[in-house]
Design brief:
Elements lengths: L1 H6 L15 H18 L4 H17 L7 H15 L6 H12 L10 H20 L10 H14 L2 H6 L2 H12 L4 H4 L2 H15 L14 H5 L5 H20 L2
Helix pairs in contact: 2-3, 2-4, 2-5, 3-4, 4-6, 7-11, 9-11, 11-13
Length: about 250
Amino acid sequence: SRVQELGSEGTCQRAPRGGPATPGEVHFRVTRFIMEAGVKLGMQSIPVATACAIYHKFFCEINVDAYDPYLVAMSALYLAGKVEEQPLRTRDIINVSNRYFHPGSEPLELDSGFWVIRDSIVQCELLVLRVLRFQVSFQHPHKYLLHYLISLKNWLNRYSWQRTPISVTAWALLRDSYHGGLCLRFQAQHIAVAVLHLALQVYGVEVPAEAEAEKPWWQVFSDDLTKPIIDNIVSDLIQIYTMDTEIP
C-alpha cells in the first residue's frame, strides 16, 4: 500500500544484530518517530506524550504484526492533537512523515496516492478509538514533576541546585520514558518521583536532612510510593537507554 511505501525505509523489520526486530525494538523506533514528528509539527510536550500513550495502549491490545505501526503512529498523532486541543492537519502529518522517511524530499502531490494515505490515517483513527474503547485521555506525570521540582528547589541549597542540571535531566528522563510503556504501567506521580530520584542519583545530590527525617523525601511527595516501585521504574528506564545504544 502507499502507506507502507511511505514508511518502508522507516519500518524496523530487522534488528541491528541481524535477526527480526523484537516488539520492544519496533515500538522504540516508532515512538522515536512520534516524538520527532511531534516536534516538527509544533506539538507541545503533553500532546506528544498522549500520542505515545495512545500508540502503546493500542499495541497492548493488538499484535504488532496486525497493523503497520507507523500508520498507527500517524493516527495517534492526529488523535492526540484533538484530545489535547492542539489539532493537526492530516496533510501536515503526512508531509512531516514523508520527510522523516525520505529526508530532503518535496511535499507529496495531492494525487490519488496522497488521498489513500489520508483516508488510511482517518480509518486507522477510528480503529484506534474502537480498540481503546474511546478511552484516550491520560494523566501524565508532567504537572507532578513540575510541582516536585519547585518543592525540591526550595529544600536544596542554592549552590547544589545551580551547579547540577537536575531539572533538565529529570525532564529528559520523563520524555524518554515514553519510548516504553511506563505511562501505562505506573502511576503518574510515581513516574515523576522516580525520574527525579534518578536525576539526583546521577549527580550525587542528597536531599538535606533526609537521614533525620521520619520518611524519605520521595514518600513526602507520594505517600503510597515504595522503594521497589521506584526501582522498577528506574529499571525500565535503564532498559530503554540500553535499547537506545543498540538501535541506530
